Amino acid sequence: MRIARFSIDGNVAFGVVEGDPAQPESLVIDIIKGIPFAEFERSGTKVPLDKVRLLPPVLPSKVVAIGRNYAEHAAELGNEVPPAPFAFFKPSTSVVGPGDPVPYPTFSRELHHEAELAVVIGRMCREVPLDRAHEVILGYTCANDLTARDVQRTEKQWARAKGFDAACPLGPWVETGIDPKTAADLAITCTVNGELRQAGRTSQMIHGIAELIVNLTEAMTLLPGDVVLTGTPAGVGPLNVGDEVAVTIEGIGTLANKVIKRG
Fold first, then answer.
1. For FRET with 174, which of 142, 156, 224, 237 sits at 20 to 30 Å CA-CA?
2. pLDDT per residue over 106-151, tens digit each?
3. Where is each Rv2993c-like N-terminal domain found (predicted)?
């Protein structure tokens, strides 16, 4: 099930996306009664997807991201692979949706793309056992962990380098129909202006999804709608004003955003 958050005529709602993504003209949203973090009903009121504006699929209280979770990515930046998951935060104000513009941060000269699988948490959880990690997952979406690479190199904390406004595009929707075994081996690609930049699989992660949830919930409570970014494969690189960057994940969809000059 593909659950989207959208706006139409000034109203914001959740809905289930129906149709074949390979045929965009066939896609419609069945508006739901309630929220996706609890039992809900489909209203039967359907709206063509091209008549709505897709928003970030969730509004997380926090985005917890994992750094250097792909060995080749760590190597390409000259970093060692950490012995345990290496976490950092991106604030809720960094989250934007599919199609939203990404203003180039004025304090950076080296903006990089990082295509990632995002895990969306479905219920409040703390100290989750490994064998029950799948129970707290609502679903998965695409993410771009945009990074001011020059700032990341010069500042010990990554708050500015990875937490600036629009640094966390998410979308286009949350796919709930992916089982843990499938999620552990999905293809991830990133293109810039149609040119392939990144190509990897989630099976290349050093620390798997369940292990990440265990590690994070040892320290903090995750809330419904919180997002865990699972790391990026090799191939990260620069973005310029005017570039369109697209993250595609097998079985989920494509998240596309355009880089603009900050006004």
1. 237
2. 999 999 999 999 999 999 999 999 999 999 999 999 999 999 999 9
3. 1-57
Buried residues in 230-254 as b, exposed as e (16+ CB within 10 A): bbbbbbbbebeeebebbbbbeebbe
Is 0.70 surpassed by the pTM of this model? yes
Cis upstream peptide for 101 (omega within 30°)? no
Task: Indicate the number of domains in the chain.
Answer: 2
> What does the DSSP assignment read for 18-68?
ES-TTSGGG-EEEEEES-TTS--EEEEEEEEGGGSEE--S---S-EEEEES
Segment 160-218, tens digit of pLDDT: 999 999 999 999 999 999 999 999 999 999 999 999 999 999 999 999 999 999 999 99
Domain span including residue 171? 63-261
